[in-house]
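Protein details
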Amino acid sequence: MIGRLPESWIPPEHLLDLRSEVRLRHTLVDQRGEWQQRIRAVLYHHGLANRRELDLLGGEGRAWLEEVELPDAAREQITVAIAMSEALNVQIAPLDRRLRLYARCQAGCKALMGHYGIGELTSVAILAELGDCRRFSSSRQAVRYAGMDITVYESDKRRSPGHLSRQGPPALRRALYEAAQVARRAGSPDRGYYDQAAERLGSNRACVAVARKLLMRAYHTLRELGEEALQPASPPRCARKPSLTQMRRGQLPTCRCRHPRVDGLQRLSGRNAPPSGNNTP
C-alpha cells in the first residue's frame, strides 16, 4: 500500500503455457548434457584425453568411440548414455519446431530477433521468462530478476570476488548466454566490447557481460512494444482454416507465406547460412 514492495505479476494463460514448454526444453537439454558428461567421465576414468573439440554424439565422435579400447563395463555405460541422448533428442525435436514456429509469428519474438545474436529459440525463452517488462522500472531490475547481477560479500576489510547471484530463472540465463556466444563472433557489433572485456576478465566472464548487454536491449525493446509484445502468436496464413463459403464452393485459399525452413542447421542469431547443395524447396 505504501509502495515499498513491487506488485506481483501473473502472466496470461498463453504465456504460462509458453513458459512451461521453454522450461521443459531446458530440462531435457540439461539431461542430455548430463549423459554426455557421463561419457566423458568414463573416458577420463580410463586414461583417455578429454577431447572437447570433438562431438562424441556426431559421426566423427561415434567412429572414435568405436575404435577406443575399453572394458565391457565401460563400453556398456557409453552405449546406454548414447541411447539416452538419442531418446532425449527425439523429445526435443518437436519442441524446437513448435518454438521456432511461434517465434516467427509473434511480435515480441520478431522484435527481439532484430538484435544480433538472438535467434528463434533464444527469443522465445527471453519473452517467456521476462514477460511484461513494464513492471521493471529500469534495465538493472531486469538484470537482477534474471540473476545476472554481481553480488559481493564484504565484511570489515575483507571482500570476496563477485559472483553471479543466479537467483532468476535458469532458462533465461541459458538463452542469454547462448545468444552471447553468437554475439561475440567476428563481425558482430559487440565484438569490440567482448575483446576489451576478455583481456581484463577472461573469455567466459566477458561472454556473461555481453549476455547482460543483450538482456538490457531486450528489456528496452519489449518495453517499447508494450501490450503488443505479449500478444499471442498469430497463425500463418497457410495454417488458417478456410471460410465456410470457400469450403462449400470447393475453393481453398492459396498459401502465399514464405516460411524459412526449420530442418538443418539454424544459427541462433536468426541469420541462417546459405543452403548448401540442392536444399531449396
Summary: The radius of gyration is 23 Å. Residues 60 and 195 are 32 Å apart (CA to CA).
